[in-house]
Each structure stands twice: as structure tokens, then as C-alpha cells.
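Subject line: Sequence and fold of a protein, written as C-alpha cells
Area: Proteins and the way their chains fold up in space.
Start of record: The labelled sequence and C-alpha cell lines come straight after this line.
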Amino acid sequence: MNKVFAILFTLMFVAVAQAQIRVVNYNIAKLQGNQEALKQVLTISSEDDSHGDAIPVSIFLFQEVSQGNETVLHQLLGDAYSMGTYTNQGESGGAQAMFYESTQLIEQVDSHKDIFTGAGRYADRWELRGVGENKGVSLWVYSAHLKASPGSNNKDQRLIGAKAILEDITILPEHANVLVVGDMNFYSKKEPAYEAFVEILTDPLGTEGWKNDAVKHTQSPRKVRKGALIHGGLDDRFDFQFISASLQDGKGLDIIVGSYRAFGNDGNHYDEAINEQGKPFFDNNEELANALHDASDHIPVIADYEIIKNKAETPVVISEEQ
């Protein structure tokens, strides 16, 4: 007689990446660079496949956006992008602006907030929710431009700003996906404000420092001053994306490991112009190097994030007969 000793129904769930979201933050120096060059940088940032797939930028976050610049930026980006709530409190270092790809995301306007970060500057907070295939995704993004220049007083001002942002994060829903980006003006990992950020959030490039790690640097891509564009060569890491633990937990929305980069920086131009002749260019793209040089006195930071959903497989039936 045959007997069924065991029948095991196992419903398996597999984490599957459904879609990707590319985030770019960029100090555009009050649009005092060449706007055609800037448009090239913005376009190529969606075409870049140096660290994975080429995907359209989902979210642009800009620093040093003076009143009226937000309209010009929107024109450069095109109708595919919607502008997030823009506010300007007469900020000494320029305001923050956010644009999102409107087939992927939508802003929750009531969630927008200005956060005073000292020295006449404000960070902005936006909440974005996914639409279409991104439905179910929620992301809180902050953009900041902290006080510039070395010196203890300026470091103290940056710490005030960092603490203001971190305090605001504490009122968000538990396990919220949080991204804090911007021109932080940190000169080293020993900056009190940097230490405050990485106590709560994660620097995707780690906390080993960057003084001798040229590939992390974002300012300045030029050696010759032009108008208000600062020179000096690529020797500072001022621009960052800090992420919450929920953006690296293997579920929901997660950063794609290895995708974070200072766009256009191949690490071979320390203290030089990014388009220095006689040296190789990032991804062999001289056009991009020239555009980055002319567009601003910073280069963008790019990171890609994937939306992970649990996909149920067909039940597996295991049986043993005797």
C-alpha cells in the first residue's frame, strides 16, 4: 500500500528588481556657466552606462538656484520633467530646486518644507511617490547648500545645518526612505557636520576619507577662473548623497551598490581641469569633459536605485511515497 509520508507546499518569494530610479544632484553655480554645456551634461547623465544600465534621470536636485533660474532649468530639462515646489527666502548661497520625471514620480506638495541651515541658507524637503510601475514607492529627498569656506566658525555653521536636517528626519514615518544631497562644503571626514550625518545616515562611498582619493572629488572641474566660476582643479569632495538604512536593506527601494559616482571624474585629474589635454577622459568622452568644464564649477553626483518587490513563484510540491 502506498502511503504519502509528507507533502510540503512551499510558497517561495524572490526579491526581483522591478525598475530603477536615477538621482542626480548638481550645484549649477547660479547658471553662471555656459548653458549649452549644462544642457549637454544633463542630457548625457541619462545616457551614462559606465556603472550599469543607461536609464533616464528620475530626479534632479540642484543647488545655487537663484530666483528665475528654476524656470531656465525647467526649459533645459524639457517637458518630461515636472518642477517640485520651489521656494527662495532670499538665500545668500542660492536656493534649492528639484525636478522629477513625471511618468515615474509625483510630488506630495503638502510635504514640502524649508529648513533653516544657518548663514542665510535653507535646505528643502520634498516627498515623492511612485506612479505607474513605480507605484508603492515613497522617497523623502532633502537638498542643501551648507556654509562655504574653511575655518572653525564655518564648520560650526555647517554643523548647525546638518543637525537641523537630521532633526527634521526624526519626524518622518518610521523606516522612511530618506536621501540627503547637496553641496555640503566638507573639507574632510573629520568635519563635525560630516560626522553627524554618517552617525545617522550612510555615505555610499564609505567613511575612509577622500583627500587622496581623487575619483571622489566634485569641485572644481576647471583651473582657470571664468567670471564667477571658481577655479582650482578637482581637489575637493563637496557634493554628496547620504542615504537612510532603508535604502540598503534589500527591500522596497535600494541603492544599487557601485552606482554612486562623481559624474565625469575618472580619478586621473586630481588638482587639474577635468578636460586637461594629454590624459584619458571619463568613459573616453571628451565631449562630456568639455561640457562639465564649461557648465559649472562643480560636477554632478549620480546614484542609481532599484525598486525591489516580492514576486510569488508557483508553489513547489515535494512528496515522498512508500
About this structure: Residues 1-13, 312-322 have pLDDT under 50 and may be disordered. The two ends are 8 Å apart (CA to CA). The domain at 4-321 is CATH 3.60.10.10 (Deoxyribonuclease I; Chain A). DSSP finds five helices and 15 strands in the chain.
